[in-house]
Amino acid sequence: MKKIKSSIINLTAISVFVIFFISPCIAIEIDFDYPNEVEVNKEFEINVLFESSTNYDIKIFVHNSSDEKITREEIISLVENNGKWQDSWNYLPLSVIDNNLYHLKITENSEKAGICIRLRKTGASKFEEICKKIKIVPISTARGNQEELPPVEPIILSNIEKNEFIDVQGKFRTYLSFIFFIFMIVLLLFFILNKI
User: Fold this and answer.
1) For the segment 114-171, what is each residue's pLDDT rounded down to a tens digit?
2) Domain match, 124 and 172 both
3) d(C-alpha 48, C-alpha 33), whole Å
4) Lesser CB count within 10 Å: N end or C end of the chain?
């Protein structure tokens, strides 16, 4: 009985170590710089700040979605790939990521526009995403009277602008670790209460 209790305590200690020290290490740091205001149909640059030893494909797009579920119909941009403009819905292969500078064009105006980057491991279907707000300036306003535009106030987003994220498998491992940890605590309490 003592060996079982000792094994349970050791297993609990290992679980605590895994949860608090290994789980945060699976986060990937990513961020990107872009102009706060962009004119419709005008090319602009995005600088992606991302380093990884794992191979990733990247998708960069501007959307007009009012919720977090972004569909192809809500994509309102084109991305340059090897000198040609392509639909932003498509991923760019890893070979393009080495550059970190990307060129986009917004194809239509939207007051609720967001700009997003999706990363997926090469060949995988699961992805992670980071999004920020972007202001689109209509062509007539941008050329006509720029002085009359109100000053842009910074938009502070809650979790959308986090600079690190955890992939879906990482979230699953984290949840599984917490469930296992809680199970071990309940089991340990059970043994302690049975001893009393």
Assistant:
1) 999 888 888 788 888 889 999 998 876 545 444 444 454 444 443 433 334 445 556 6
2) no
3) 7
4) C
